[in-house]
Amino acid sequence: MRHLPTRRPHRRAVGALTAGLLFTFGLTAPAAAAAPAAPVSPALDDGLALTPPMGFNNWNSTHCRAEFNESMVKGIADIFVDKGLKDAGYRYVNLDDCWALPNRDADGRLVPDPVRFPGGIKAVADYVHSKGLKLGIYTSAGTKTCDSAGFPGALGHEYSDAQQFADWGVDYLKYDNCNNQGVDARQRYTTMRDALKATGRPIVYSICEWGQNKPWEWAADVGHLWRTTGDVSDNWASTLSILKKNLPLAPYAGPGHWNDPDMLEVGNGGMTDTEYRSHFSMWSVMAAPLLIGTDLRRASRATFGILDNKEVIAVDQDPLGKQGTVVSSEGGRWVVAKAMRDGSRAVALFNESSTTQRIATTARAVGLPDAPAYTLRDLWQHRSYNAAGTIAATVPAHGTVLVRVSVGPGWAAHPPAVELGVQGSPLVQADKTATLTTAVTDLGRTPATRVSVSLTGPDGWTVRPDSPARTPVVPPGRTLSTRWAVTAPPGTPTGSYDLTLRASYRSLAGARGGSALPLTASVVVPPPSGTSYLGDLPWLTAANGWGPAERDTSNGESAAGDGHPITLGGVVYAKGLGVHAESSVEYYTGGACRTVTADVGVDDEKEAKGTVAFEVWADGAKVASTGVRTGAMPAQPLTADVTGAPVVRLVVTDGGDGIDSDHGDWADARVSC
Fold this sequence. Notes:
alpha+beta
């Protein structure tokens, strides 16, 4: 497997294990055939996984640490019941790697680790089953599993291992791809399918092949779900990258055969709650398996609030089984719509960018028929509104507004949908007044009455309206605009601060309506005159594909500060930025700067691996780029004209070939102001 931002970095060496060597283990070679150009009908007509599987997998939270044990697994089962997750639809409690001893017994059978699982796997399965839940287990379609300790894989032992799993009462198998010895993927995964079927026990079969051989084109009659990508990591760049790879595969998903973009990271701490809500929303719109990846024994109330949102879960579990499709995508603004069995549409307005954006579509564009009005249900606010046909929202950075839109006579019982928006720069200098203009727009078929709007900021900030903030009525299609003076107190440190825009109103019948829009204001300082190293200046935002962006060192691995001296083609640089694709680092330049310069390339720490591309953006426009750079190339000088731009953004992409050791350096990066 490629060196992804992954929780199993040892997978990067799997390919090397098979160079020049093909093991067949007595399997029959598959007949040569072209991959189908379109989805195939599922042949696993066994009634399993008719909706995407929901449950838990321990790997994202524990990896192979000692805390993964029988007590944990039973504790998760207890929490499923006690916290209502079972009632919400979560059923599978799945064990990942490291449950077995490194060696089989004298009869070739798998042996559960007696320290982790003193009662054995069957005792755990019995306990899980006593709660009305199901147990899952893990192995690999290779000679060993993926963990570096080298636990036994199932290649060549498919039938005996499958029978052991069935005898233990296993209900779900995750079948990984490590140490596969070069055996054809379709052959390996089909053999395990046949072995599971031979046991006579119904077992959901999860193909974890990482999307390397396009399983969506051939696995509908092999497994119930298949991984479409490499491993997800608990950061925004990883989640976004996987989302973009999985979205185009919608035609291949359906009841009993699902695209799997990997487990959930919700609650693991590497993203904000806004990002976790987007993660959960988009996985649900994509009809993805919902496998909790956080240790629920330590989960926060906010985490449970996301995982237990039954209205969002209903989108994922809709029995029609359609994966959402992209309606539009431009400038980081996504509209994704999912057809539902009752004729409604679930619509995600998703903002991938690091700034608040307005995202809009129409009922017709998402596939609904023309109608006098529509009922629009906000699945995170849990409120219903009437809408004339426009579906729009101002969406925070990395946020998602998820609504369910339907046709029918019930729309008149609800207040009109109201869109909140903001114009003006959210960049504020301490002790200087910035101006923002807010908008409250009636998107409904009926007027909004007794409308009032408020804008609040942190303690000590001054936020006052400079124009009317209330009105008796806002007719359909009209807007209440309010200018606000926003001042941060002297000495406010640079950084991001929360503002909240709220509107309250009523329908003609007196039904209350209301909405809130979280905003982010950034306190900035003007850049110093002259030439400065970018590594010495504060950034506005920094998104990175693996670990944090680093100042004056290479990216290193996942921990902060674990990089090395920036080195390109043997030349060592004392200053610069070390990042990992996909990466975006933003700086406030205040319109006062002229040029950005750097030597760019893939850091030598990747030993000639990695392909990336560098871009410089000024006020939303690309002003310089390199094209694809590989780890075998020397540093390339890059100069960008950023004259007059208030914000400059440094971007590193994966070069178009997926993420693989993509450690990019902005060596000697400077800005002249």
